Amino acid sequence: SHLLSVPKGHTFSECSAIPIVGMTIIEAFRRLTFKRGDKILIQTATGGTGLIAVQLAQHYGLDIIATAGSAAKLDYLRGLGVSQVINYREEDFEREVLRMTGGKGVSMVINTLSGENMQKGMNCLDKRGQYVELSMTAMKQAREVDLSHFTNNQTFIGLDLRRLIEADPGYVRDLWEACKEWMESGVLRSVISAELPFWDYRRAYRMLEERGNIGKVVVRLEEAPGEASFKEETVFKGVLEREETERIDIAIVGMSGAYGSAANLDVWWEALRWGRSLIGEVPQDRWAVADHYSEEKGTRGKTYSKWGSFLEGTDEFDPLFFRISGREAEHMDPQQRVFLQHCWHALEDAGMTTKDLDGKRCGVYVGAAQGDYLQQQTEVEDASAFWGNSSSILAARISYYLNLKGPALAVDTACSSS
Fold first, then answer.
1. Is pLDDT larger for residue 13 or for residue 96?
2. Which of 100, 45, 40 is nearest to 78 (CA)?
3. Which of 8, 40, 128, 234 has the fewest CB atoms within 10 Å, i.e. is most exposed?
4. Is pTM, for the whole model, over 0.70?
């Protein structure tokens, strides 16, 4: 049921680049009501869905305003005959759209942008305007949406092709037949930025991360004509050689930390600067020293040390600030609480806000060892205690809170990451 027939006159690569984006945009246009000359705003118009939307909009004679994220992409759109283009990374596209339309706005918006750009797209609607949201992830994570711009008979349409496929496979096959007809008639065509052999998949991902591609990046499973035979040792030797020679500059823009009884980096630095020891006796709120300490070395069941450097205030955590219930926070490994707090302090130190990072490709990497906090709890009645004490969840906590879109990895290297 998941196999699709290839349109006449098209290569396998061309066909592999179009089904999802093609059927999504065809379904979007089926739901829209429009006439020739109506204005449409197409976001990220050099992406997969954007280019299909441009082609269909041109076929229907719509007046297109398109956004893209670089000068090269804007030039490409101009080459397609789209004269009204906006660099959404450098310009306020809402202001530009209203300027281009004399303050009226557009009849339709096809959106793929996240964060505040969703709201700005809605603000671009004219009376009886129709807004199509294609980014389901962005819609689920939208924390605040002002619907006051929908008071003049505007329409919001959320489109999730995956759920359409699950709920009605027959309807999706009808969408593909429509897509095939548009392709065979020349209305729709695949735009492929690059075709790469499977072994070079890393370069494909790198192209997507750099956002320089126009259209799709296709990874082939078969060996292309004229290419050397696949040799695993040669391929991975080349990959390793590239990794050894590539150098990437990094910038440290914010820091936060607590080391033993030094509650922050300033206190820690002053201790280093003046040679002040951070070692002290075990605080009474940690454990009863008398139950475990003996001056006599070798006493069975006792330790002859009662000194150390201990983090302070590990129970002083504001769970609601991080959208965590008090009940869940009580069972959380203190490592998770402390990590969340210092991630936030590091952002403050960098002068960054949650809006700066919302929806961005930002990774979180943390060295962490599994603690025994869960084992110290005599009664565990809340399931959240299990993920609240898993080091694999540690990095994901802050990723979820800030809506980050990069990797979230906890690395356990024993003592060096404890």
1. 96
2. 45
3. 8
4. no
